[in-house]
């Protein structure tokens, strides 16, 4: 059950596919117009070697895998920002630990109206769940047909259902970030392998060993490895950070929910 306040919260971006497509288009534009800018290469020709010390031209020489890895990198950054605002809205207006403490204090005093006021002021996922559970609490107080154990079970069920409605919104898009943790590194390695194959093929066709060509080819190929590792590392950091945030939020939900149930059991 959702409250009116939940409708005003930022729910995040559901169409992650559109984000990936948009990031791919941006990555292609960056690859061709920034990295592939003729000014980055000898004789202003992208088919030539990059200018000495020009990193943008070197990245361009990483090949078609570069915009693919860039897409994954931009997707991680975009979804990380999106998750930040979504979870910030889920936590509510004030500090979550303070809100939980205030709710528990109101419950200990038996002041349900105060607890509801705190929920209306706090907003966010925790406040939505607590508010829904408090409504069931008052409903069970007025119910003269069910036994006490049945009332407690009804309150617990309401808590679980309200939590189940909020969790998918909080965990949305995290599976995509989790996938990129591995996919980014694999794409980097794929780009490196392709670059090395091309490098050795060029040396073989030349009929001799050209150390300059070999070292240049290897440096260009390793660009993909660097991009892949960077993407995977950022994805791991983002995923673990937001997973920890969600764990903290669900712990607060369990703590408040337990207090509501225990209050009902002790006073009825």
From TrEMBL:
Protein name, per record: MotA/TolQ/ExbB proton channel family protein
InterPro entries the record matches: ExbB/TolQ_transport, MotA_ExbB_proton_chnl
Domain of life from the UniProt record: Bacteria
Keyword Cytoplasm in annotation: no
A Pfam family this chain is assigned to: MotA_ExbB
Domain MotA/TolQ/ExbB proton channel, chain residue ranges per copy: 143-253
Main location as per UniProt: membrane
Signal peptide: none
Record membrane topology: Multi-pass membrane protein
Organism listed in the record: Bacteroides mediterraneensis
Cell compartment(s), UniProt: Cell membrane; Membrane
Membrane-spanning residues: 12-34, 64-85, 176-201, 221-242
Keywords: Cell membrane, Membrane, Protein transport, Transmembrane, Transmembrane helix, Transport
Entry keyword annotation includes Glycosyltransferase: no
Family that this chain belongs to: Belongs to the exbB/tolQ family.
